[in-house]
């Protein structure tokens, strides 16, 4: 575990955090054990809404962007290489003259980043433990070229680390192709990402409001740039617990199904339950999922009518209607 590595480094690995000043936590999970007991010394930079909510509930100051200057920064590596590099660059920029600590699993590419770091600066220490590695160095502008920059793909703005940053994913494209013209006055996209699916339905007749719910703040920032229609409302939140401001006629979704590197079908099942809660009694869900995912029981439990629409190999396109109100 990441916190095991950090604590081992502090206890036995030669890592020494500064005694004074604020320590930035870039991307640290909401349930991670803190490296020091004084929570007031930490400022978390967390763009994933569920983790940000957990950190705030623990009394840790949390924002989506660094403020600085910090005395030190601890960077937890994500899966995406470009996002990992962007975090390191941001940590260096926000921690002038301070200590930068990198913590990551081997499956998330920490060894490759260590090698790259050694080619750019002096690595002061490193420890390998718990299927991962921690290494540290002093902040430098040698990583400035790693700063994450937005890019334009097929007319859409995306950013490093967001889902399908290189263009619309095949599942969303397939779902957009089968959506009917009439979707009703209120449409909600749970997990709307950088806005591809909402962009495909803004011209539907009778559309009055479109609610886009997304847990990734960077993806939501892209969506705000991609969707300037005043009927769109943006919500940075956990789609599985989000409280909808109004019941929808239609819910769209291409739900995530990974927690870290592990496939977690329960996540998509929670999205299905959330869709049912957000719909009017006569409302409908339009959903795409990888064919192997076991969503049938959840769909049957939460909707009175479920049908699969023909689609491309590897995907199942689902139209479910008349949500069942599950008693809690």
From TrEMBL:
Residues covered by the Methyltransferase small domain: 156-318
| UniProt name for this protein | Methyltransferase
Keywords in UniProt for this one? Methyltransferase, S-adenosyl-L-methionine, Transferase
The source's domain of life comes to Bacteria
| Gene Ontology MF terms in the entry | methyltransferase activity
InterPro entries, A to Z: RsmC/RlmG, SAM-dependent_MTases_sf, Small_mtfrase_dom
Q: List, alphabetically, the SUPFAM superfamilies matched.
A: S-adenosyl-L-methionine-dependent methyltransferases (SSF53335)
Which CDD domains does this entry report, sorted A to Z?
AdoMet_MTases
Q: Name one Pfam family in it.
A: MTS
The reply to whether S-adenosyl-L-methionine figures as a keyword in the UniProt entry is yes
List GO BP terms, alphabetically: methylation
